[in-house]
Each structure stands twice: as structure tokens, then as C-alpha cells.
Give the backbone structure.
Amino acid sequence: MDKNTFNYEHLSSLPGEKLLNWLSVKGHGSISEFISAFNSIANEYSIIDKTQESYFSYEKILQNYCSLLHLEYTETEWSVSNATLNVLPGVKNRTILTGSRNYTLLSNLVKITSADDTFVNYFIDSSKLLDKTGDEFKQQLRRNSLETTFLPTTLLFAEYSDNELESISSDLGVHLNSVSPLDYVKALPSIDEYISKFGSSNIPSFVTPERFEEFSKINHEGFMSINDSFNASTGLTSEDGYLYRFDPGGFNYQYFVYLNNQNYFINNEKIGIWKQISRLEKEYIFFVKNDFLSGTLIVPSLFKFPQIYLKTLGFCLGVPPVQIWPQRDVGKNPKMNYFLNIPEVVATTLIEEKLKCKLIFIEDNNQIQEYF
């Protein structure tokens, strides 16, 4: 973390900042346009070949930007969020700048930083590129995964009064968010309410749906893959609360949840996956109280949050989750996402009330291995 003495010109030259600037200027567009812009920047830094590595996916980049509250996306298009100051919960005088970020905004930030020493702004660099220049910068670009290299820098404000925060918002020309993470999560629909909003429909007679089975099997990567979790032999009989899919012929799978004797088609399998997670007898979601400021929510990486729920966690710190394999044998535990600075009431409201899942309270990370 660097203070405001950092070189803003260097900041704007980072790959993640260039991509965020392009997103901010364009405002919205298709996923194919996003991919073209991403590839163009990667090619500029001579790291385009890394898109061919097996672990890479463009959706991981989109997920990171969504997690950091910079954009929202669907399978076909994306849109950038408005520039906003969000006050972090559980810590005093700490605010992050999210959403759209262009050169004009950075220029305004330079002006108010130079003119006012009563508050401090910091840069939190998840890409590990912020303090690198010259050959060291190029070497780090080659060494990092693209998911890490293209992370935008988090801008954090500290040591201000309430009146100063309003002044910062005004001087930057950005919105000051008065909604806390707890306010936001309380207003969210439960998973069943969310599913019911998609509307019900009949299944075509010419298809045989496949029913989602379970996450209980663990392979060398952690949990078995999503695709391996569907079983065609069980799709002949509909069962309440289960996620189903079918191939409409030459297109992507279509997903629906059978709920209250109706088929609710969903536009994203993540929603159905979380419905299945709520059915599990075994618990896989953990919370460590008073860890890293407010607390740490620990969720298997395979359990990807739908965007509407992911925002809750983005409001709490402004950095992406840390991915770690728990102690013991790598490959016998799933890789976990560690969401930092999550207040207990936010975690319990999100996981237990809205997603209807079980939350296990542990003392430290090492206890996770006892549950696998």
C-alpha cells in the first residue's frame, strides 16, 4: 500500500488501469468488444500469449471487475458502474472509490490531493505492479497470471472528517454512497424469491433434462466440476428445489429450477448452484470472527456468487478475495476464496438468511481441514 506520493502517470500505465479506463470511456458494450480490448492491451505489453494458458478465462477478469464493483455483465454484454465513494464497514475513516475511473477523475484526484493535506489517499495494488518500473515491471508482467496482472488498483481514502468526505465527493464529481453493506444485503431477495422472479415455463417435450447431483465428491482440483455434477439418468423425475439443465440443440445449456411444482428458467447457473448448496448436508462455508478487521468469510472457489449477492462483499473491502488451499493435502481440500473485512452480521444475513446456507464459525483457517 502506497500513499498519495505515488506517480499517477505510472498508475495510468498499468494494464488493469488501462482496461478500466477503456471500460469507463466506452460505458457499455458486448463481451466480444471487451475481449478485443483486453487482447489489444495484453498485446501492447507482449503478454497476449498468456491467454492461451489452460487456467485463463475472460470471465475470470470480468468476475474480478464485478467483485471490485467496477462493472456488471451478462453472457453477452457488460456495463460500467458509476464512480462512487463507498465507506468501509467496521473501520474508522476508510472509503474506497469504485466504478468508472477515467483520466479526468484521476486528474481531479491529483488536484485535491495536492491542495489538501488533511486527508490521505492510498493505493492498494493486488496486481503487484504498482511499485515496479522498467525491466522489473516487465518481468513481473511475465510472471503474473493475467487475472492478477489486470487487477485495477484500489483507491482508498483515510484520515478525513465527515465533512471532508462530502467535500472529496463533490471535488471529484462522484456519488457518495449512503447505503451500508448491511443495508444492501437486507434489501436483497432470498434465493427462492430470486428464482421465482424469472417466471415459470414448460420444458420442451423433445428434451430430457439432466438433474444436478451433488458437490460431495472431491477430485484433484477440490470439488468435482460443475459439468460432472449433472446426471441424465435422474432427469426423468422432477424433484423440488433441484437445478436442471438441457441442451436445446446447438446452443448453450439452458438451466431451470423445479420449485413448487413449476419450472423456473434462470439466466445464470450460479443462481441454481447456490440453491443446491443450500441443500447440502455437509457444511463448506466458514467465518472467522474478528479476523482481518471485522471478520473473514471463507467460501469454496467453485461456489461463485451471482452478481447481486457478490456486491455485498465488494462493499466491504474493495479488493478481490484471496484464493488459498487450506492446510493438509493439496487436492483433498477445495481451493477457498477468503473475503476480508466482512462484518459478522453481513456474513450471516447473506449466507444464512438470503442464500439459505449453513455458516460454520471457526477460530482460524487451520480448522477448515477438519470438515473435509
Summary: The chain has three domains: 8-178, 191-277, 286-371. The longest helix spans residues 31-44. The mean pLDDT is 87. Residues 286-371 form one domain.
